[in-house]
Design brief:
1 helix, seven-stranded mixed beta sheet, mainly beta, four-stranded antiparallel beta sheet, Lipoxygenase-1, globular
Length: 171
C-alpha cells in the first residue's frame, strides 16, 4: 500500500469562443476506500480561460516544482484538501472524474468547454503512480444542458523510476 502524496492535473480549455468559465472545477477520486473531491483554482492566474493549458499541483509536487506549475489554492501541503493528509491508497482508486460546479438556476450556468485532462497521482518516491485521462474525440461541454461531470480513462500504472513529465507528455 502507498498513500497518494499529490496530484498533477493538466487541464486544457477549448480554443472556441465562450468555452471559458468562472465556475468551480473539481477533480474527484472514487474507489474501494471511498471518495473525495479536490478543487482546482488559483488566485494567481485567471484559470479556465479560453485556450489555456494549465498544470495544477495538489499536495506535494511530483518533481521540483517548475515555474509553469500552478499550485491549487485549496490543496496545498498541510491544508485540509492536501491529498497526503487524507491517506488515500493509490491502488484503491478505481475512478477519477472532472466536475464543474452546478448552480441549477437558469441563467446561472457558465458552461465550460474542455479539450483534455490528464491526472497523474503519485505516492512515495519509487512506487510510481497512476494516470487517468480524458481526451475525447471531440471537445466536451460541461454545463446544465450537457451534464456537469465526465469520467476519465484509467491509463495505467507508471513505473517507479519514470519522470512525471515523461509519463504525462507521452500520452
Amino acid at each position: 500500500m502507498a498513500d497518494i502524496l499529490g496530484m498533477q492535473v493538466n487541464l486544457q480549455t477549448s480554443l472556441d469562443s465562450d468555452s471559458q468559465t468562472d465556475d468551480e472545477i473539481y477533480i474527484g477520486l472514487w474507489g474501494t476506500g471511498g471518495g473525495r473531491e479536490f478543487p482546482l483554482s488559483s488566485s494567481t492566474i485567471d484559470d479556465f480561460e479560453r485556450g489555456t493549458f494549465i498544470t495544477y499541483v495538489l499536495g506535494e509536487a511530483p518533481i521540483p516544482q517548475p515555474p509553469t506549475f500552478v499550485r491549487s489554492d485549496r490543496a496545498k501541503p498541510g491544508e485540509a484538501n492536501d491529498p497526503a493528509g487524507l491517506q488515500i491508497d493509490l491502488a484503491s482508486v478505481q475512478y477519477v472524474y472532472i466536475r464543474k460546479q452546478a448552480y441549477g438556476r437558469k441563467g446561472d450556468d457558465n458552461a465550460y468547454k474542455l479539450r483534455s485532462v490528464v491526472v497523474f497521482m503519485y505516492a512515495t518516491p519509487g512506487t510510481g503512480g497512476r494516470i487517468f485521462t480524458l481526451q475525447p474525440p471531440r471537445e466536451l461541454w460541461l454545463a446544465n444542458e450537457h451534464g456537469h461531470q465526465a469520467w476519465l480513462e484509467d491509463s495505467g500504472r507508471v513505473a517507479g523510476g519514470v519522470q512525471v513529465s515523461e509519463a504525462v507528455t507521452t500520452l
